[in-house]
Amino acid sequence: MKYISFYKHIVMILFIGMLYTAQEEINFYADSWALLIGINEYQFEKPLNYAVADAEEIQRLLVEKLGFPEQNIEILLDDNATLNGIK
């Protein structure tokens, strides 16, 4: 019985440590920037199926999981993914 109680405490300590570490990661990216490009339709190549969806999902993960400021993420999709779009 003592061993079970000991292991419960170890698991609890590890869990608290993981939560603390996750919080540090969120703060780590607060000053970060991202440029995401997703192009499904190409002029001379076969179209892709999921590039736009992948770029949008990465944007969501950066904001929700890593704490990127939404205004620090530029996402360019299909026809907007041009040099002028980046400028």
UniProtKB/TrEMBL annotation:
Residues 33-73 form the Peptidase C14 caspase domain. GO terms for molecular function: cysteine-type endopeptidase activity. Pfam families: Peptidase_C14. One of its GO terms (biological process) is proteolysis. This is Peptidase C14 caspase domain-containing protein. The lineage of its organism: unclassified sequences, metagenomes, ecological metagenomes.
